[in-house]
Amino acid sequence: MADFWNKLTIRQKLAITAWLFLAVPLVFYITIRFYPTFEAFYVSTLKWNLLGAKKAIGMKNYIKIFADEDFWLVLWNTIKYALVGVPVSMLIAFIIAYWLNEIDFGHDFIRAMYFIPFLTTAVAMAWVWRWFYQPLPIGYFNIMLSWVGIPQQPFLKSVTQGLYSIMAPAVWAGLGFQIVIFIAGIRAVPRSYFEAAEIDGAGRWQILREITLPALKPTIIFLTVVSTIGFLRIFDQVYTMSADSAGGPLNSTKPLVLMIYEFAFDEFKLGRASALTVILFLILLVVSLVQLWLMRKQK
Amino acid sequence: MSDVNATMARLERARPGKVILWTLLFLGGVVMITPIVFMAATSFKTGQEVFELSIIPDRPTLENYLFILQESKFMRWMLNSLWVATFSTASVLFFDSLVGYTLAKFDFRGRQIVFIAILSTLMIPTEMLIIPWYMMSRSFGWIDTYWGIAFPGLMTGFGTFLMRQFFMSLPDELIEAARIDGWSEFAIWWRIAMPLVIPALSALAIFHFLGNWTAFIWPLIVTNDPDIYTIPVGIASFNGEFQMDWEIVMTASCLATLPTLLVFLLLQKFIIRGIMLAGLKG
After folding, report:
1. Complex ipTM
2. What is the pTM for the complete model shown?
């Protein structure tokens, strides 16, 4: 054995060491990542309730999903979370980061106040938010509305307001992360750019539009993709906050992941649930590919 | 005293615009932490006082905390979460950096394929793997075990990618020199390369630990036994039990938030830098 080892070239020894280092991780990636990925595709072609026999039904799960009105509602809900949540949170985060960057006095302290919600557990904060949304005389939001003479709002109990009421804590919790990344991005812009612009007599607004924002393009793309994927996968807040039943009232707040959870673990329709996960995968894949394409254009 | 003077002098020099800006940002910050302050305040209130708007309770009480610690399995959940998150983070730090290092510093056939394969796992959402993981856990008896909660996250594509980026920036001469001195490859990684990437390791540790501490959907699926619940699953289970005892659920929520908050307040600079680092490299 030692003889064999001694005969190898250094290059060969290094290659063997490398594969030794990779051995356990490769087993992990194959069994816990790749195999389950293929299994998800496979199960999506089955009719199976976990206990009974598996029955191959081809694309029927997908056909049923596309024929299901609830699926289109849920898909639209999911898109709404991202379509509204991403721009709103990014805009607020950018405005705060932009101004926070100019503040020296107590900078860390103020930044901490914005960042702390990022460290909370969605499930724990869901209780607080549910309280805030309560009707009078308990709910703080309704109390505040009553001060300015606006009638009581149903918030979580409404089919039109429910989704946005659940989105708010998600935006709130993610803001700190976005702000910190924005500040890092702004600070990475070379000082000389700003100085040159100031010498040329550019105003604040002009500098923002023509120097800061273009220089922040990679940061903006990164954050947009990360938050879009985050909102498209929203689950915790909906599961713990929605009124009547999870995703209620009347499925008006139900996102894709909750539908997957219910099909798989309440109704044990594993085939249908897997098909939904494949659809989610394809949606997220498109988002990631758009990111890669945008990043490439950048260079 | 001189601090106050310096502050006053700074304020005087500041343009009034800055003072307004500062005040606005401060007020925004107050709005941001209101839910947390409110939660903490309520946890010290008695049942009679709970619906009053005051921040500081008239008659503060620790009853709620005693109740939670005695009547629910909260301490047990806390320890479960702590154990799972620590174990998982240790595994990620070890394996992600080992793989990242191997991909960055070893030249061997198949390296590119391994790298792309691991990177491609970033494209696969957890939700897609949950059903196969559940089937796997059922057949191997991993339901209601710590291993069952932790196994999906023992290595991550993100961490591997991050560590690879950092190891790539280490000079090769360092490794060559150690090789000539007769160090084993493992020792070179563990004792020379690892100490040089501690900022990256701590960023990864913070991200992974926090992610595990707040993780919900997988622990919810893989545990049925309240003795094995993690904190988020435990708190969600209050839904049926203590339906409208707001002061009790607020106390539990407060206890769940406390550990991460304390760690943050102690290591603020470190954590923010870690997030900036990971965000910029990632």
Report:
1. 0.90
2. 0.90
